[in-house]
Structures
1.
Amino acid sequence: MSKSSKAIPNRRERVLPDDAFITSKTDTRGKILYGNPIFIDLSGYSEDELLGAPHNIIRHPDMPRGVFKALWDTISAGKEFLGYVKNMSADGGFYWVYATVTPDFDAAGRITGYYSVRRKPRREAINLIEPIYRAMLAAETRASGSQAPAEGLAVLQRLIQESGKNDYTAFVLDL
């Protein structure tokens, strides 16, 4: 499948083994510079197709844009992001991960890229986060284009506030 191909989502779930970790490295714009063998395997793309592609090549349409806004806001500020992500493989299948995304810095303290480590999430956490993501997607669908991520994020922030947590990281750590 080429970098420009877009699979049609299906219900085939791929499951990350309990003891496996997906790792990848991107530049500051999200272009993939490295992906370990399990990342390449689960994605369904070849290494040549992944390297140089934007990391959103594996973005599943069930993922709210607001989550990615939160991710980019966090890592662009030089902080670590933790969260649940549903990815789509080249064949349209999907796999869930619990992601930790960390900025890489040069000697002058400038961000030079991002390193991501993903592991298998607990099924109970996925069951809790899926309805939240559906509510976010519904809000994003009702909003106009550029406002959609903020509308989805507003839904998430309300739920976080109702849970008594301060931010998304604290919220997902309790799932």
2.
Amino acid sequence: MSVRLVVTAAVSALALATASLVSHAADAPDFEYFKAKVQPIFLTKRPGHARCVMCHAEANNMLRLQKLPEGQTTWSEEDTRKNYETVVKIVQAADDPLKSKILIHPLAPEAGGDAFHSGGRQFANKNDPYWKTIAAWAQGATLSSEKKKK
């Protein structure tokens, strides 16, 4: 095999990989929607449950949220971006965003969720407004698309 053929093949493979990454990033769920609608769910106290952040701040699992600074009630812009990068990877790891771990793991088994979630069943079913918010984001909702619906 000639050097020229090897170089051409390598350049082609790199171009294809770059195009795939750019396409994947362009398809990523909306950051602003995440910041305004999804991330606050991780801070919400639900009856009978701990807030997601209590177990997932600096956790050693897929949903590793940033720790809230002492006395703060929400994350900084930098920490919000880190949380977004973590959660978007969970969504993008699934062929179908509605089957991503962020939606299935905390969902009750009788509603199609995982058999075990140590934080309890955060969502009893897919009609839960918080589940619907995360699902809408995972499927590409934006703040502007939400305004158009109203």
